[in-house]
Write a structure and sequence with these properties.
Elements: H1 9-29, E1 37-39, E2 46-48, H2 49-65, E3 70-73, E4 77-79, E5 85-93, H3 95-99, E6 106-113, E7 116-124, E8 129-134, E9 138-141, E10 144-145, E11 158-161, H4 169-181, E12 185-187, H5 192-200, E13 206-212, H6 214-226, E14 230-231, E15 245-250, H7 255-272
Parallel strand pairs: 3-5, 11-12, 11-13
Antiparallel strand pairs: 1-2, 3-4, 5-6, 6-7, 7-8, 8-9, 9-10, 13-15, 14-15
The protein binds L-MYO-inositol-1-phosphate.
């Protein structure tokens, strides 16, 4: 498949690196028995040598080609650079599925120039899907233009919902209740990046997670905007790239319905606290 944006040297490198990193991650995925893991927040928030090794590879390739660029990675954090470009990297997004042998995981790479995300790439090695976007130049899935759903509504579309232990659990349970009461349905696979990519290509009608990290969502949010979708500001009021924040994204016809459900569910959660 030809390079989608061959005139952008950072995109050309990012594309080469995400495919190389995907092959490395897939090799680990096919032999999980000897993989060393360790807990972060709790038993549901685990990191493995695969995450660390894949991020190290990505960082090495970026440093060799663009030594003055900064990198923000899930496992090694922020390395600043003087160029004004920042690479935002999740080496394996959907670590939980990955470690349980379920193929719902991906690699996510975004490139920011100043405060703007200008490139986004998400690769799902188990299916071979490569989602890409460049600011102002559209979004593509496997080399073909992609666009958000034109018909999905809360009562007919499928919504991605993220859940984690970084926020009060009521925020998730209250949202799911509101969604089901409105006739909607959700899936959760533990990979915010992959769910956002599925919104960008029209498979999901939208995505909500009360808290997500920049490395999970930067690439996917650009794709959704370039594919004609709506995204709430990230990380939102009071948040930073390092703290993260809520993520809300939808096909344009779904925006108002989804926003109303989010706002009402947060009121419900507050009332139960
Ligand atoms: C995951 C995110 C997901 C969130 C999970 C986890 P990881 O990232 O993509 O949205 O719900 O708690 O943070 O840890 O698999 O890279």
């Amino acid at each position: 498949m030809p390079c989608e944006f061959p005139d952008d040297p950072r995109f050309v490198l990012a594309r080469e690196v995400i495919l190389e990193a995907g092959a490395k991650a897939l090799a680990y995925f096919r032999d999980l028995s000897s993989l060393e893991t360790s807990q972060k927040l709790n038993g549901q928030d685990v990191v493995s040598e695969a995450d660390k090794s894949v991020e190290a590879l990505i960082r090495e390739r970026i440093a060799a080609a663009f030594p003055d660029d900064g990198v923000l990675g899930e496992e090694e954090g922020l390395s600043e650079g003087p160029s004004g470009y920042l690479w935002v990297v999740d080496p394996i997004d959907g670590t939980s599925c990955f470690l349980h042998g379920i193929d719902q995981w991906c690699i996510s790479i975004a490139v920011m120039r100043g405060t703007e995300t200008v490139l986004g790439l998400i690769c799902q090695p188990s299916t071979g899907d490569l989602f890409v976007a460049r600011q102002g130049a559209g979004a593509q899935l496997n080399g073909r233009p992609m666009e958000v759903s034109q018909t999905g509504r809360i009562s007919t579309g499928l919504l991605g919902v993220g859940a984690n232990f970084r926020i009060p659990l009521r925020q998730v349970s209250c949202f799911v209740q509101r969604l089901l009461e409105a006739g909607g349905m959700f899936i959760r696979n533990g990979s915010g990046a992959l769910m956002l990519a599925q919104v960008a290509c029209g498979r999901l009608a939208g995505y909500y997670e009360p808290h997500i990290n920049a490395w999970d969502c930067a690439a996917g949010l650009l794709m959704i905007r370039e594919a004609g979708g709506w995204t709430a500001d990230f990380p939102g009021e009071g948040g930073t790239l390092l703290t993260g924040g809520p993520v809300i994204a939808a096909a344009p016809q779904m925006r108002d319905e989804l926003l109303a459900l989010v706002e009402r569910s947060l009121e419900d959660a507050e009332a139960r606290s």
